[in-house]
Amino acid sequence: MFTNRARILVIGAFAIMLAVTINMHVYQIAAVIVMFIGLLIYGYFKEGTIILAAKSFHNKDYAKTESLLSQVANPNWLSKKRRGFYEFIMGGVCLQKQDFDAAERHYEIAAQYPLRTANDHVAALGHVVNISIRQGNYEKAKAYLQLADKYDDKINAKMKDVISKLHKELDKK
């Protein structure tokens, strides 16, 4: 739940404390400090800035969201749960920028990872279907719509309505 800059500052503070505790020969506390530094480094690679980006995405601050997501050095290193959120949120940012190809790609990747709820998973699939319909790729839209239909008993009424509308729109084509 740190930005990369905050992580560096906290690691710096821990490094100073580490130097002091080693100088004072208090090795037990030094070991705990090394453990905290390790946890911060682990968090950089496995957690990233996804939680902060999700909060700013929820508040519709897309520029801040994109800035926070750009701090993730390599999305492939994120844990499975965080990677799904990363791709889902990045798809939303690309959708806001009207970069539909990138949004479709991110939502396709997000659908491959576990998301918070079945509604989120179906939303990612629904976005892919919607973009595919808009781009005239009806076969792909049908395939992703079938994947979304598998979650019919696990999603709320709002998502069922969205899927129903996508079915109707696809039937018109």
In short:
The protein is mainly α and 173 residues long.
Structure characterization notes:
The protein contains nine helices and no strands. The protein has helices at residues 4-23, 27-46, 50-58, 62-70, 80-96, 100-110, 118-134, 138-149, 157-172. Helix 3 (50-58) packs parallel to helix 5 and helix 4 (62-70) crosses helix 5. With 173 residues, the protein is mainly alpha-helical. The mean pLDDT is 94. The relative contact order is 0.08. The longest helix has 20 residues, at 4-23.
Which helices and strands appear, and what pairs or packs with what?
Blueprint: H1 4-23, H2 27-46, H3 50-58, H4 62-70, H5 80-96, H6 100-110, H7 118-134, H8 138-149, H9 157-172
Helix pairs in contact: 1-2, 3-4, 3-5, 4-5, 5-6, 6-7, 7-8, 7-9, 8-9
Unreliable stretches covering 5 or more consecutive residues = none
The largest β sheet comes out as: none
- What is the subunit organization of this protein? single chain
Helix content: over 70%
List keywords for this structure.
single chain, 173 residues, mainly alpha, 76% helix, elongated
